[in-house]
Amino acid sequence: MDYYMQEVMSRHGLDLSKEQMIVLKKLHDQDGLKQNELASLTYRDKSSLARLLSKMEAKNFIVRKQSEEDKRSNEVFLTDEGRRIFHRTRPAIKEHLETMEQDLTEEEKHHIIQILKKVQFNFTGKTANL
Question: Which among 38, 118, 121, 123 has most CB atoms closer than 10 A?
């Protein structure tokens, strides 16, 4: 799945990994998240998220700013370029989903979602918002 997703992104001219796309989505939903909160929301440890954010800063997708409330933490914000790239991902994601769902009935899709929720719960103890 990751391979095909990367292929679709490349075909749409997007230099974006799945992990970067997840961060863009979380920040699109709630811009200005603290870096620690973002690590938790994306199921990443703090050091791997820091490396990912450094790459995203180099691409001008995000900017980190020191928190006004707690000088020890950073808040992460989308840049205009990050917003533009996020919106450009929509057609690529739609294409990817259409390919995945091809020839599946609504009942089959429902069963797949239920199974994936159970698998995620087995790993995390948390229910998925699928």
Answer: 38
Q: Which pLDDT band, with edges at 50, 70 and 90, does 129 fall under?
A: low
Q: What is the pTM of this model?
A: 0.80
Residue 80's Cβ-side half-sphere holds a number of Cα atoms within 13 Å equal to 0
Domains located in the chain, CATH noted? 2-104 (1.10.10.10)
The residue length of the chain stands at 130
What single letter denotes the amino acid at residue 44? R
* DSSP per position, 78-89: E-HHHHHHHHHH
Is residue 89 within 8 Å of 16, Cβ to Cβ? Answer: yes
**Residue 60 near residue 82 (C-beta atoms within 8 A):** yes
Measured CA distances, 72 to 27, 34, 66, 68 (Å): 20, 11, 7, 9
pLDDT tens, 88-126? 999 999 999 999 999 999 999 999 999 999 998 898 886
Strand partners, 33: 76
